[in-house]
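Let's sit down with a protein and look at its sequence and fold side by side. We need material for that, and I hope you will provide a protein of your own picking. Once you have written the record down, we can walk along the chain together.

***
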Amino acid sequence: MEEKSKSRGWCGWFIAIIVLASVILAVVYTVKLRTKKSGDDDGGGPVPGPPGAIDKKYADALKLALQFFDIQKSGKLENNKIPWRGDSGLKDGSEDNLDLSKGLYDAGDHIKFGFPMAFTATVLSWSILEYGDQMNAVNQLDPAKDSLRWITDYLIKAHPSDNVLYIQVGDPKVDHPCWERPEDMKEKRPLTKIDVDTPGTEVAAETAAAMASASLVFKDSDPTYSATLLKHAKQLFNFADTKRGSYSVNIPEVQKFYNSTGYGDELLWAASWLYHATEDKTYLDYVSNHGKEFASFGNPTWFSWDNKLAGTQVLLSRLLFFKKDLSGSKGLGNYRNTAKAVMCGLLPKSPTSTASRTNGGLIWVSEWNSMQQSVSSAFLASLFSDYMLTSRIHKISCDGKIFKATELRDFAKSQADYMLGKNPLGTSFVVGYGDKYPQFVHHRGASIPADATTGCLDGFKWFNSTKPNPNIAYGALVGGPFFNETFTDSRENPMQNEPTTYNNALLVGLLSSLVTTSSTLQSLK
């Protein structure tokens, strides 16, 4: 749990099929992908092909990254693939006659924090929508969709009426003094909710984004479920917008863990996803009309569970790359210009390159969970690069200096490679990947033998053990190194050695973007 004082796949939304050398047929809400228009950076290059050769390194890491979601599942487990996990949290929600047994434990503890869990679902949806063909090429699409549905099943139950959303199961004050397996929990699991008297705009809007994006994922395979998700998304967005108020102001207890710095970004993010899911121009007008109020145009930001602006700007850029009819939405250009500024900040040789970078090349912003910005930045860079290439735009200008779209992809790969072991420490930060990775991950279930029965306190003998975790939390992306590229592998070091589901969702998106090659990128080398 975070304490805060602390495509190159061309499937998903757009499956590019080369029929003639100069013709692209793509499925983007039944509209053809557009080619270069006057004023674009540069165009006329080769067009993308279907997934190509598989990069085993990223394919292996992707399989592991998705496995971490199985490790984090609450509820009655179905087709359980993790031998040291079992059913848990079966009575969650019962005090209000709800079934909140599903969902994911947020990190190494056993709280279900709705705000970052919804963000996890939104990012997983985005990853599937853009890179579903990549995932499918390495047999990981079904596991990704299964994990997403485990979350959205929970979110549906957590929204029992239009203006009520349960946003947390468990109390950190009760949970955190314990060290035990989730299967053995006997402590009370109190519920926290938002409603008209206690609004929480950011968590309601993020949950709306999660449900709207997931409705697209399941639109073809389960249209009834998709329609249910979309109905909830619309209700939650209306609740978020009409009953504005910060959840971390109205519920001060959350401030120590997932404190929000504002809700404007979530409103824009949710409206953007609802437009993609519905093509209802009302939502497009919303992001256009509220851009000056909430979007911080011209000021690049870091994409995270707390700040969705950079993600929103990239997502809305997608419309300008591919959508034909966007009449009356003049404000979208500001979103794409700011997205470009974000990209220019990430390119190492750009005149506006960020200084928030280690000597080894890792994007580094904060000591706590340092890799969140690394993986989120790399994911957005992959997306933007792929949007450019699919649109036959292969250059971007950063203060007059020209960079290729493939250089954004190279940046994304550099971050992924660092996480997988190409770094000064020679260690992988993805548990189970490579020959050297963290052995003492701050994770209760991983640290306690599956056949041990512990209470709240006696489990600390496993926390204090000098032996490595008896269970391997396969696929977990831990917090990451300090700026000086030091890392302490210890259970007592959650700042660096605790994994989170939202980091793993971003990692899944990043690895899915890199898992195969295509004719386009090969031809641009």
In short: The chain has a mean pLDDT of 89.
